[in-house]
């Protein structure tokens, strides 16, 4: 596409006596062939806009690791596709426990999504914790479909403290996550996460998920 300059636009408008549009052309920004914005653009009201790196590249594919002590530290703004040994959707899992660590939120409104991709239910424990267990907590809510709607199955909140001693983690029993289930995490403040597990397969019942101290090493056991 050829470059359309402000001067060319003004010339055409003047020949047509379109004074209104002539004045408007003075404030028109133009795109060059290199798709660069020409001219200095100012937003009133002191507005400044920036895009975080986690928003620019939000998709992450997690391949299961061959041990029960791995900890995935999550990043706000990302969506994680996880649950298979190969990373391919619809494959089976590695039958290894996994612990997800939610980061220290900087404010309310941060968001993280985890989407299981495994065709068969995860065969080991799944844990959730925070990077800063001395100050941050997780309130979890688990929903599963019923005959007519989605029911709240279980809810509780972790406590601050020390891994291995206090209930700083959330533990989900084996064989309770499957492709189609969704895990949504929202920061409610700089010290609290809300985690909603939205089940689609009726796998989680009351008592299948609890707060737990986990291991002193920061992983679920």
Helices, strands, pairings?
Elements: H1 6-15, H2 19-25, E1 30-31, E2 37-38, H3 53-56, E3 59-63, E4 71-73, E5 79-84, E6 98-102, E7 111-116, E8 126-130, E9 137-145, E10 150-157, E11 169-172, E12 182-187, E13 192-198, E14 209-212
Parallel strand pairs: 3-5, 4-6, 5-7, 6-8, 9-13
Antiparallel strand pairs: 1-2, 7-12, 8-11, 9-10, 11-14, 12-13
Question: What does the model show?
Answer:
This protein has helices spanning 6-15, 19-25, 53-56, and strands at residues 30-31, 37-38, 59-63, 71-73, 79-84, 98-102, 111-116, 126-130, 137-145, 150-157, 169-172, 182-187, 192-198, 209-212. By secondary structure, it is mainly beta. Helix 1 (6-15) packs antiparallel against helix 2. The chain is globular. A hairpin with a 4-residue loop joins strand 12 (182-187) and strand 13. The protein folds into 2 domains: 6-44, no CATH class; 53-212, no CATH class. The protein contains 3 helices and 14 strands. The longest helix has 10 residues, at 6-15. The strands form 3 sheets. The chain has a 7-stranded mixed sheet, with no helix packed on it.
How many extended strands?
A: 14
Question: How would a crystallographer describe the biggest sheet?
Answer: 7 strands, mixed
> What is the overall silhouette?
globular
Q: What is the tally of helical segments?
A: 3
H/E order of the elements? HHEEHEEEEEEEEEEEE
**Rg, Cα atoms, Å:** 25 Å
Number of domains: 2
Low-confidence stretches: 27-57
Averaging pLDDT over every residue, what do you get?
80
Structural class: mainly beta
Tell me briefly what this model is.
This protein is mainly β.
């Amino acid at each position: 596409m050829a470059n359309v300059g402000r001067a060319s636009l003004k010339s055409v408008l003047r020949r047509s006596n379109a004074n209104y549009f002539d004045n408007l052309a003075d404030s028109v920004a133009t795109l060059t062939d290199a798709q660069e914005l020409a001219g200095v653009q100012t937003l009133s009201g002191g507005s400044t806009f920036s895009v975080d790196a986690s928003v620019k590249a939000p998709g992450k594919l997690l391949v299961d690791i061959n041990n029960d002590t791995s900890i995935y530290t999550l990043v706000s703004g990302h969506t994680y596709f996880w649950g298979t040994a190969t990373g391919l959707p619809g494959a089976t899992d590695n039958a290894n426990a996994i612990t997800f660590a939610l980061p220290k939120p900087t404010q309310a409104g941060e968001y993280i999504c985890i989407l299981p991709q495994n065709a068969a239910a995860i065969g080991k424990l799944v844990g959730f914790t925070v990077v800063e267990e001395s100050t941050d907590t997780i309130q979890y809510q688990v929903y599963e479909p019923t005959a007519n709607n989605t029911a709240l199955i279980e809810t509780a909140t972790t406590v601050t403290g020390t891994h291995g001693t206090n209930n700083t983690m959330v533990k989900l029993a084996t064989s309770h996550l499957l492709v189609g289930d969704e895990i949504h995490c929202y920061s409610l403040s700089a010290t609290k996460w809300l985690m909603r597990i939205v089940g689609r397969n009726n796998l989680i019942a009351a008592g299948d998920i609890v707060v737990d101290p986990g291991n002193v090493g920061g992983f679920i056991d």
